[in-house]
């Protein structure tokens, strides 16, 4: 139902307050104000004394029969004449002075008893004529009651209280009568309603006087009037004259705050019922107090509720008039007061009107509450609107729509339990809410008028204009701007009377709280716009004008209530495709410059929470950041047609102000969630600027016209911060040579205390020639220093902010800034960033034991990962000796728990002297991963083969195919290949597979060994040769051909008779020492009989051999005719025991082991046992990088089923071209069959296979379905992580059963679980020989180490606390939805879509993940070409709010892919950090190697091992 139908009828005539739908009907106001003749008694014609005596005598007798003092008796009155005579007496008795209290009381008792004649069972004391015609007599009695309520002048407080008690009795009786009687006629109902109107007017129309009877009865008479009127609506709907009278009299009582409270109470009760039948049970319920809900009579029809709701809503006239004392006091009673007062004064001077600001506020709050209810975001507490909890007028300043907490069930979606970073605390808008135009037709006129109270532009919207009958589909034209009656005037204020003598309590600024409430309600309405919804231009124009006025900043730069209300309620304003909303951009930036840079914000309203105000302001800022680069030199239209001081303003000119706002806000922000949102915006700004500068030269002005601030992005809100967070090169010049402040020497407190007002900031210009202050590079430098400084000074104790800061730094490291924009200082800046990171790790590790917690270690792990990203992205950093030393010291600290040299000047402790005691095993694992990346990847990533794999793709099968000994053929199984290798495990963590023959491409007959090394960080293949000369000296031929025998020479040389000596002659002259005699002579040995016998035996053998050889030579000469054969060199040896040589040369075979040392680091594996090849394959299928998967969906407007959504991507005609552009920016396309990395499903990952022709055929003209994982996926990787982007289609569901072997989950190494423990307890004295061999970190994983128990030094974790077997991978579900309609994100069929997102990592059960455990990134394309982001994540996850994307952020297309990818990676990374039992990839591989050792080790003694090595290799 359209709300507009309700007030078609009300806009026919609205020129006067008494007009509207009742203008054609007569009013009964004069009747109730001038009194009814029925209430006059004939005794009034006689002197007071006479009448009083008659009344006292008669009434006393009548009261005696009622049964108060004795049992009730039947009435002696039996005829109409008798009853009517007594009623004349009772009527007079009611009007007696209050000192005749007993008589008046008896009169009341008699009538209250007689009224029971209308009850189903009348009381016995009721006269018979009354019982026979109860309605007639009831109407007379009700009229007579009026006399009781007339105030008596000059009475004391005590008598007034007595009067009030009797009035309460009458009201109670009449209310009860209306509730229980079933025989009331229409005439009686009308008499009852007119009586209630009359007594209310009698008591409430005069100006309020404290503690008079009107003041005492005010709430009660009003509540009875409204409640009985509601009963009448249900049972005998009041006639139009009654409604008109009701409306006119209510406007006489507008100075009574209780009227507004009762009005709100009834309106909200009716609204709650109205919503039920208009929008159904799924619409969020308007929660109101139970007693208010019971106001609505049982059985009231829906139509009656709707009619009553609309009439009650309009019974006060225009609520905006409540801020006009001249209008409110323009009543007969106020004029009487003015005339009868001693000094004739204006009626608006009465002191009771001082409550008008609070009354105005409550009325507007009531309307705002109804607006919220129609939007589906009902407020939790409406107490302040429906009862007097505060009487002070000063409470008027405490109103703000956002100050009340909001509750009520959110829409019926399973997504409602999710949370998101930057997510609004307000519940989501109801999907079935009415259109904005409908709500504005109903409440807009009042709200617009209230929103302009006290503004420079005065708003006149009361008068109608001619209705355009031809325009059937339009709103009645009474709401359109007209030059005469609905004009926008630039004249000065007219909302109050023009007299200068307005009381101080009623000056226009006192109504600011109500105005703020109206502006907040308008913002809520316009921010509820749905995708594609049209809002009438006249409403937009009025709204923008109201906002422009409301955002006006006063001279003392205080945050006014209107400013706060607008900011709090318009967070979505710039992300809704509102036509022309950009004209407000400069005004909103002015307002944000008041709020965001201020550390000590001056708030006028105490009820506004500073944190919430800053959060709403940050939301606005995040929706503006990309506008300058998106619209660039487009001019922003000037508002209102007036000349502006700014001059023509372009979007690009706003960029410096926005960047200053962002950085200054981050400098002073103290709330963790707000800081994370700002960090996300900061990365977006740098990323967007960098990409924009690469794509096209961006022309940006250096100054912002008319702005107080310069456009320097490298500016600061505080000179303290400037000195701390700027490069020293800049500081030394600009701040007069100030010393560089390092993280070690700086004050650890937050250096933002001296931030002053934004307008008086100290800006620093850097004398660097050619540095564009607005460039991406300048912002990169500023962001790096600011975030590093705050990270180590004030954010280090907060887990989520630390993680967000580290994510931002990692994002900055990856940003590519074009060469022309970068400076020579780049290396220095990046080096300092890494130094800050290292200092952060050192500080966190050095905190006292009580501070060491899971959260602390998570920040350390994240810092190690961030450092790895910086080093891989900037490999030149490690060429700097100082940087390399710093990084390696921190790695050493992470692995061992301490540095070798703690402070300069201290002696260096060697590693074997240190006790290995890292902060935790997670920290040690992260440090080992960084060390490996430094040694293997920095400067080499990506490899020439691409980022898809960090490993060698060669395995045993591939190597054996290239061997000379392989005969060829296609059939070569892994088992056959494995048999040709020898397998050893070194250090219990590295598997060596040795092939003792050269590959086919090597003809050199050198000792060659091919090694496959499988370690924690991957698989690598090496071929090694033993050479005696380097290659460049040995030439191609190693053995010269046979040179032949030399030609004999004819001349014979001179023969010299020389006695040959073994040593020179002078040796004999040197005196001998003990060393010379250390080798005994042969003769001395022969003195031993045993040795002599052996010598004799040996001599005999030599003689025998000599004889044999001589005989053999002679025999040979006889057998051959020719000369003795020529000597030829033997053929080159091709068979070597290269495995033994390799192991020996690399130190794995030592004589120490032979002498009984059991610490041999070498273990041989038995490859003949079943399962060895399978376990080896499982090890090869364990990546050394983290692997994550993101599933991308395209949702067209209105789609609700999984089948519709999945089929969208089959054709490019059913998706937006921007969606395909977005997909390409996420990663690069890879063929899953030739791709060696992660593919999004474990069945095709980490292996290269041959596809069938059908699988290899990619679809053409697809809308993304090519990347469904069947043949292609989108892939991205860095040195430590892989991520696949899959676009599921209807046919892309893989088998849910896991493809990996469950043994890979096993953490059981030696019957114990894998758990964290300190190094000292783990190692004990294992492996320490007398030579004190160094304890390696890998020794921690040895079986002997796992058997120890106890606690570590600080007693933080008991070693027996065995971790349960965790899943081998983190299976975090990240889903990206591209939506055409923003509202569709409330009704995604998640449960069905999740069935198309299996990766094989779900675990053994094949269970589809819970939809509440997913991360959702919803992207909604705006008409401007930008995209609005909506994030949702599992509720209750402490670390699930990943950056850089923030809920509600507006992102440009150019930066979208990178931002989504980083956010998805960070979501998964945070989930891993939060999982206590998660094992990093290299740890899982190490455990698998240990498992291989346990299952397949050869139990060989050392001699048996050597024998095994000396034997021939397998063939």
Blueprint of the fold:
Elements: H1 29-34, H2 48-64, H3 80-94, H4 101-114, H5 128-132, H6 134-149, H7 157-180, H8 186-204, H9 213-235, H10 240-252, H11 257-279, H12 290-293, H13 302-313, H14 325-328, H15 332-340, H16 356-375, H17 383-386, H18 436-451, E1 458-459, E2 488-489, H19 512-526, H20 537-550, H21 561-569, H22 585-595, H23 610-622, H24 627-631, E3 635-636, E4 649-650, H25 655-668, H26 672-695, H27 719-725, H28 728-734, H29 776-793, H30 799-814, H31 826-845, H32 854-873, H33 881-896, H34 921-936, H35 956-961, H36 974-979, E5 982-986, E6 990-995, E7 1008-1015, E8 1018-1025, H37 1031-1034, H38 1082-1085, H39 1089-1119, H40 1138-1145, H41 1151-1154, E9 1162-1164, H42 1172-1180, E10 1186-1195, H43 1202-1207, H44 1217-1226, E11 1228-1231, H45 1253-1256, E12 1272-1277, E13 1281-1286, H46 1319-1323, H47 1343-1346, E14 1373-1379, H48 1390-1393, E15 1414-1421, E16 1427-1432, E17 1450-1451, H49 1453-1474, H50 1481-1496, H51 1502-1510
Parallel strand pairs: 10-13, 10-14, 14-15
Antiparallel strand pairs: 1-2, 3-4, 5-6, 5-9, 6-7, 7-8, 11-12, 12-13, 15-16, 16-17
Helix pairs in contact: 2-3, 2-4, 3-4, 3-6, 4-6, 4-7, 6-8, 7-9, 8-9, 8-10, 9-11, 11-13, 11-16, 16-18, 16-19, 18-19, 18-20, 19-20, 19-21, 21-23, 22-23, 23-26, 25-26, 25-29, 26-29, 26-30, 26-49, 29-30, 29-31, 30-32, 31-32, 31-33, 32-34, 33-34, 42-50, 44-49
């Amino acid at each position: 139902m359209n709300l507009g139908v309700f007030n078609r009828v009300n806009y026919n005539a609205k020129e006067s307050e008494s007009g509207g739908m009742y203008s054609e009907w007569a009013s009964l106001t004069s009747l109730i104000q001038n009194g009814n003749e029925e209430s006059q008694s004939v005794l009034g014609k006689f002197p007071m004394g006479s009448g009083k005596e008659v009344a006292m005598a008669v009434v006393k007798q009548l009261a005696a029969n009622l049964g108060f003092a004795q049992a009730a008796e039947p009435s002696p009155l039996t005829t109409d004449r008798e009853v009517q005579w007594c009623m004349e007496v009772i009527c007079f008795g009611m009007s007696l002075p209050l000192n005749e209290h007993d008589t008046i009381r008896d009169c009341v008792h008699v009538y209250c008893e007689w009224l029971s004649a209308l009850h189903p069972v009348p009381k016995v004391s009721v006269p018979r004529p009354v019982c026979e015609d109860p309605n007639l007599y009831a109407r007379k009695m009700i009229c007579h009651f009026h006399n009781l309520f007339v105030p008596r002048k000059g009475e004391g407080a005590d008598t007034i209280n007595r009067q009030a008690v009797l009035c309460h009795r009458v009201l109670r009786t009449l209310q009860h009568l209306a509730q229980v009687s079933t025989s009331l006629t229409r005439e009686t109902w009308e008499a009852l309603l007119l009586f209630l109107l009359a007594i209310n007017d009698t008591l409430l129309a005069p100006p309020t006087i404290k503690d008079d009877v009107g003041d005492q009865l005010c709430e009660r008479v009003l509540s009875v009037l409204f409640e009985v009127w509601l009963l009448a609506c249900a049972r005998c709907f009041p006639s139009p004259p009654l409604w008109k009278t009701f409306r006119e009299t209510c406007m006489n009582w507008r100075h009574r705050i209780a009227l507004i409270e009762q009005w709100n109470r009834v309106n909200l009760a009716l609204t709650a019922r109205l919503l039920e039948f208009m929008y159904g049970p799924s619409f969020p319920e308007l929660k109101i107090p139970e007693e208010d809900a019971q106001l609505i009579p049982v059985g009231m029809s829906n139509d009656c509720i709707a009619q009553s709701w609309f009439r009650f809503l309009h019974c006060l006239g225009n609520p905006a008039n409540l801020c006009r004392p001249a209008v409110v006091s323009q009543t007969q009673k106020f004029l009487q007061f003015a005339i009868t007062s001693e000094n004739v004064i204006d009626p608006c001077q009465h002191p009771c009107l001082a409550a008008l600001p609070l009354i105005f506020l409550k009325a507007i709050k009531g309307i705002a509450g109804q607006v919220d209810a129609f939007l589906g975001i009902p407020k939790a507490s409406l107490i302040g609107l429906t009862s007097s909890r505060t009487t002070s007028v000063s409470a008027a300043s405490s109103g703000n729509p956002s100050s009340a907490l909001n509750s009520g069930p959110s829409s019926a979606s399973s997504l409602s339990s999710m949370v998101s970073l930057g997510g609004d605390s307000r519940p989501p808008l109801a999907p079935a809410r009415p259109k904005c135009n409908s709500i504005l037709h109903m409440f807009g006129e009042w709200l617009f008028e209230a929103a302009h109270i006290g503004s420079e532009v005065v708003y006149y919207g009361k008068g109608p204009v001619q209705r355009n009958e031809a325009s059937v589909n339009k709103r009645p034209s009474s709401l359109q701007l007209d030059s005469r009656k609905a004009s926008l005037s630039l004249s000065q204020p007219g909302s109050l009377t023009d007299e200068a003598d307005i009381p101080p309590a009623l000056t226009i600024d006192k109504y600011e709280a109500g105005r703020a409430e109206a502006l907040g309600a308008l913002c809520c309405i316009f921010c509820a716009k749905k995708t594609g919804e049209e809002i009438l231009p006249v409403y937009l124009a009025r709204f923008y004008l109201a906002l422009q006025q409301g955002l006006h900043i006063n001279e003392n730069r205080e945050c006014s209530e209107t400013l706060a209300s607008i900011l709090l309620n318009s967070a979505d304003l710039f992300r809704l495709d509102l036509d022309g909303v950009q004209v407000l951009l400069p005004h909103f930036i002015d307002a944000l410059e008041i709020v965001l840079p201020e550390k000590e914000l001056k708030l006028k309203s105490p009820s506004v929470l500073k944190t919430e105000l800053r959060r709403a302001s940050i939301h606005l800022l995040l929706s503006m950041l990309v506008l300058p680069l998106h619209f660039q030199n487009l001019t922003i239209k000037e508002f209102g047609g007036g000349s502006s001081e700014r001059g023509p303003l372009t979007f690009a000119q706003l960029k410096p102000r926005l960047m200053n706002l962002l950085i200054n806000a981050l400098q002073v922000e103290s709330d963790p969630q707000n800081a994370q949102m700002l960090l996300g915006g900061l990365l977006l700004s740098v990323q967007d600027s960098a990409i924009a500068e690469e794509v096209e030269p961006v022309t940006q002005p250096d100054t912002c016209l008319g702005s107080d601030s310069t456009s320097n992005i490298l500016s600061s809100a505080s000179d303290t911060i400037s000195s701390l967070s700027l490069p020293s090169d800049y500081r030394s010049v600009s701040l007069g040579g100030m010393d560089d402040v390092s993280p070690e020497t700086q004050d650890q407190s937050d250096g933002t205390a001296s931030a002053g007002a934004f307008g008086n900031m100290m800006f620093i210009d850097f004398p660097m020639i050619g540095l564009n202050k607005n460039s991406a590079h300048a912002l990169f430098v500023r962001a790096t220093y600011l975030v590093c400084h705050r990270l180590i000074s004030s954010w280090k104790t907060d887990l989520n902010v630390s993680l967000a800061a580290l994510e931002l730094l990692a994002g900055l490291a990856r940003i590519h800034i074009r060469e022309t924009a970068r400076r020579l200082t780049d290396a220095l800046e990046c080096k300092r960033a890494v130094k800050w990171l290292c200092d952060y790790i050192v500080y966190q590790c050095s905190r006292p034991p009580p501070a060491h917690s899971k959260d602390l270690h998570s920040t350390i792990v994240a810092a190690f990962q961030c450092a790895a990203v910086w080093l891989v992205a900037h490999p030149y950093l490690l060429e700097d000796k100082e940087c390399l030393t710093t990084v390696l010291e921190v790695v050493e600290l992470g692995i061992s728990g301490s540095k070798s040299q703690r402070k300069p000047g201290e002696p260096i402790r060697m590693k074997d002297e240190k006790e290995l005691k890292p902060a935790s095993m997670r920290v040690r694992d992260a440090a080992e991963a960084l060390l490996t990346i430094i040694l293997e990847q920095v400067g080499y990533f990506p490899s020439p083969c691409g980022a898809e794999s960090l490993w060698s793709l060669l395995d045993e099968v591939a190597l054996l195919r290239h061997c000379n000994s392989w005969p060829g053929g296609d059939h070569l199984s892994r088992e056959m290949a494995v048999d040709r290798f020898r397998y050893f495990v070194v250090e219990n963590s590295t598997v060596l597979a040795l092939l003792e023959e050269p590959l086919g491409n090597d003809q050199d007959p050198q000792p060659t060994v091919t090694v496959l090394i499988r370690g924690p960080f991957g698989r690598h293949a090496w071929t090694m040769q033993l050479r005696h000369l380097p290659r460049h000296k040995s030439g191609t031929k190693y053995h010269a051909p046979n040179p032949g025998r030399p030609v004999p020479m004819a001349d014979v040389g001179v023969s010299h008779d020389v006695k040959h000596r073994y040593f020179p002659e002078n040796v004999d002259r040197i005196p001998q020492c003990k060393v010379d005699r250390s080798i005994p002579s042969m003769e001395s040995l022969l003195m031993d009989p045993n040795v002599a016998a052996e010598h004799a035996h040996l001599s005999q053998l030599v003689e025998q051999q000599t004889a044999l050889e001589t005989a053999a030579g002679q025999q040979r000469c006889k057998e051959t005719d020719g000369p003795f054969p020529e000597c030829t060199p033997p053929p080159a040896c091709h068979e070597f025991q290269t495995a033994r040589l390799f192991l020996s040369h690399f130190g794995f075979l030592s004589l120490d082991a032979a002498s009984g040392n059991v610490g041999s680091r070498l273990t041989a594996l038995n490859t003949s046992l079943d399962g060895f090849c399978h376990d080896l394959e499982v090890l090869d299928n364990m990546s050394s990088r983290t692997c994550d998967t993101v599933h991308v969906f395209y949702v067209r407007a209105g789609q609700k089923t999984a089948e519709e959504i999945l089929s969208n991507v089959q054709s490019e005609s059913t998706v937006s071209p921007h969606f395909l552009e977005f997909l390409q920016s996420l990663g690069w396309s890879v063929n899953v069959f030739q791709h060696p990395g992660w593919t999004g499903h474990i069945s095709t990952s980490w292996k290269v296979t041959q596809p069938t022709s059908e699988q290899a055929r990619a679809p053409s003209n697809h809308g993304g379905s090519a990347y469904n994982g069947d043949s292609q996926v989108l892939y991205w990787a860095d040195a430590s992580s892989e991520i696949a982007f899959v676009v599921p289609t209807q046919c892309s569901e893989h088998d849910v059963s896991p493809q990996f072997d469950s043994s890979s989950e096993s953490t059981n190494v030696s019957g114990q679980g894998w758990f964290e423990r300190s190094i000292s307890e783990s190692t004990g004295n294992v492996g320490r020989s007398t030579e004190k061999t160094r304890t390696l970190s890998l020794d921690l994983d040895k079986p002997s180490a796992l058997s120890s128990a106890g606690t570590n030094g600080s007693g933080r974790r008991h070693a027996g606390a065995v971790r349960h077997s965790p899943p081998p991978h983190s299976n975090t579900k990240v889903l990206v939805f591209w939506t055409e309609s923003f509202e569709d994100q409330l009704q995604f069929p998640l449960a069905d879509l999740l069935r198309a997102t299996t990766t094989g990592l779900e675990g053994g059960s094949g269970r589809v993940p819970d939809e509440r455990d997913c991360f959702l990134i919803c992207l909604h394309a705006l008409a401007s070409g930008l995209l609005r982001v909506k994030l949702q994540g599992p509720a209750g996850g402490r670390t699930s709010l990943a950056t850089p994307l923030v809920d509600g952020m507006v992102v440009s297309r150019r930066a979208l892919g990178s931002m989504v990818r980083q956010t998805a990676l960070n979501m998964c990374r945070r989930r891993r950090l939060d999982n206590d039992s998660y094992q990093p990839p290299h740890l899982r591989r190490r455990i698998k190697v240990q498992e291989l050792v346990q299952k397949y080790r050869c139990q060989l003694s050392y001699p048996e091992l050597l024998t095994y090595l000396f034997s021939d290799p397998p063939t």
